[in-house]
């Protein structure tokens, strides 16, 4: 048969399937914009800023509505009340991971971030237990962060107050902290392997947040075979996987079952304990992806937050000066900041929370999925349906945060200047899929930022009012624009 005729028949079948799916779902899923065959609502969305498009649609369809990314229906939750009701009040039902083809291709239902079912439950439970045993949120991890922050100080001093791009330096700190947990070792900042790892992490964040990956996730069966940035992403990930596998092999050779040194050792011991269980979730393949999850989340997201945070402080030098004043008042200039100091530093705590709120690092989080057929409000949502959670709508809620588009630490301070918690603070998402490294991230942000400001004054290369803080990319993640600054020793 002529290839063209085959193509026409296939397209016709896809259109019929799409129309049938839409008809089947009509009257069951929440309302939303009418999708076109095959492409769904893609043409009605700004793929350069999905979060903004979602907020515009919410004005017409309310806090719970449906959009189609290609032929895939996705239920959107917009606003604190809808998000809380789903992720917190009905956490188990909304604890699935929605389909995200680019991550599915990388992870193949392994690890913690993109897996489902028993794989996710057992791997997450085990990982959290081991991280707690190793001191997550405790003094042992705090010491490692403090030590690494001082290495950063020494590296920044070598810039001699000259203009510099701190992108990689800010990535080395969280990367080495994660390495100490996973591999029990750190890299020197001049190590080419560390430089390559960090460069690939930053490149991956830009690629994953690009419009091209939005298209890949909507039409994976077509885009996957085209040339594009997804090829570079998968190549970079392969490098990371090979690096991790090498580390695992080194650990296997020197493993002492009675004396685990780090996360990999604990996982290998669990594998040995379950070696006769053919259904065991603890395999080398799962270990590679689990470590990749920890590596990526712990390095790329923290590095991006630090970089955006410093840019905001350059834009608002009066805020940076108040943080420095509080540091010198509570901690002084000689000893390192510690987590106990946080209680005495409400303004610094408010600034760190406002950085995370303002930058909105993961505007729509990663997609959730319902684990069973459910009735949500007046709608029926079938098992497996993807759920898109608008974290932007929570973090930028004008009722909770007056002037949400303004960077204002007062959003987290009461009338007496004390730190004020907010239920709307969800940069790490919420519920059963909340980021497993949330506690570590809090520690790193506080200790690294205070250490930098304790030792340096940040100087921009242009007038602060001329600094552009608009994201360079805003997709799955938010990426700050490129900039240089000067670190002036105090």
TrEMBL record:
One of its GO terms (biological process) is organic acid metabolic process. It is found in: Endoplasmic reticulum membrane; Microsome membrane. Its cofactor is heme. It comes from the Eukaryota. One of its GO terms (cellular component) is endoplasmic reticulum membrane. Pfam families: p450 (PF00067). Residues 1-25 form the signal peptide. Heme binds at residue 435. Its main location: endoplasmic reticulum. InterPro entries: Cyt_P450, Cyt_P450_CS, Cyt_P450_E_grp-I, Cyt_P450_sf, Cytochrome_P450_fam2. CDD domains: CYP2C-like. It is a peripheral membrane protein. GO terms for molecular function: heme binding; iron ion binding; oxidoreductase activity, acting on paired donors, with incorporation or reduction of molecular oxygen, reduced flavin or flavoprotein as one donor, and incorporation of one atom of oxygen. Gene3D superfamilies: Cytochrome P450 (1.10.630.10). Keywords: Endoplasmic reticulum, Heme, Iron, Membrane, Metal-binding, Microsome, Monooxygenase, Oxidoreductase, Signal. Belongs to the cytochrome P450 family. This is Cytochrome P450 2C21-like isoform X1. The lineage of its organism: Eukaryota, Metazoa, Chordata, Craniata, Vertebrata. The gene is LOC101346874.
């Amino acid at each position: 048969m002529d290839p063209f005729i085959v193509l026409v028949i296939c397209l016709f079948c896809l259109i019929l399937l799409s129309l049938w799916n839409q008809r089947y779902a009509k009257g069951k899923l929440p309302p939303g914009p009418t999708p076109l065959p095959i492409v769904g609502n893609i043409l009605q969305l700004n793929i350069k800023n999905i979060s903004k498009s979602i907020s515009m649609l919410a004005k017409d369809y309310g806090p719970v509505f449906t959009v189609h990314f290609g032929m895939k229906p996705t239920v959107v939750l917009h606003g604190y009340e809808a998000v809380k009701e789903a992720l917190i009040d009905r956490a188990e039902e909304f604890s699935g991971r929605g389909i995200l083809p680019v991550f599915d291709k990388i992870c193949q239902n392994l690890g913690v971030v993109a897996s489902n079912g028993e794989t996710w439950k057992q791997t997450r439970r085990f990982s959290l237990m081991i991280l707690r045993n190793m001191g997550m949120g405790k003094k042992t991890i705090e010491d490692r962060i403090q030590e690494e922050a001082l290495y950063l100080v020494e590296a920044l001093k070598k810039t001699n107050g000259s203009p510099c791009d701190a992108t990689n330096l800010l990535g080395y700190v969280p990367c080495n902290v994660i390495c100490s947990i996973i591999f029990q070792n750190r890299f020197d900042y001049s190590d080419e392997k560390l430089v390559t790892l960090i460069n690939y992490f930053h490149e991956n964040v830009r690629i994953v947040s690009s419009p091209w990956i939005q298209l890949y996730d909507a039409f994976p069966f077509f885009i996957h075979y085209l040339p594009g940035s997804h090829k570079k992403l998968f190549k970079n990930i392969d490098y990371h996987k090979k690096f991790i596998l090498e580390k695992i092999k080194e650990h296997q050779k020197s493993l002492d079952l009675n004396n685990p040194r780090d996360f990999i050792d604990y996982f290998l011991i669990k594998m040995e304990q379950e070696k006769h269980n053919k259904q065991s979730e603890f395999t080398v393949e799962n270990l590679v992806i689990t470590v990749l999850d920890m590596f990526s989340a712990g390095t790329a997201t923290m590095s991006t937050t630090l970089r955006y945070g410093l840019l905001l402080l350059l834009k608002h030098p009066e805020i940076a000066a108040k943080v420095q004043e509080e540091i010198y008042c509570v901690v002084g200039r000689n000893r390192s900041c510690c987590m106990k100091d946080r209680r005495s530093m409400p303004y610094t705590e408010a600034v760190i929370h406002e950085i995370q709120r303002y930058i909105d690092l993961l505007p729509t989080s990663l997609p959730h999925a319902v684990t069973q057929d459910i009735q949500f409000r007046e709608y029926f949502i079938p098992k497996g349906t993807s759920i898109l959670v608008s974290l932007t709508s929570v973090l930028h809620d004008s009722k909770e945060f007056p002037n949400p588009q303004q960077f204002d630490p007062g959003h987290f301070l009461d009338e007496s200047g004390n730190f004020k918690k907010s239920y709307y603070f969800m940069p790490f998402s919420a519920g059963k899929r909340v980021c497993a490294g949330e506690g570590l991230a809090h520690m790193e942000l506080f200790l690294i930022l205070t250490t930098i400001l304790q030792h340096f004054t940040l100087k921009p290369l242009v007038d602060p009012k001329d600094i552009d803080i608009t994201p360079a990319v805003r997709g799955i993640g938010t990426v700050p624009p490129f900039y240089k600054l000067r670190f002036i020793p105090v």
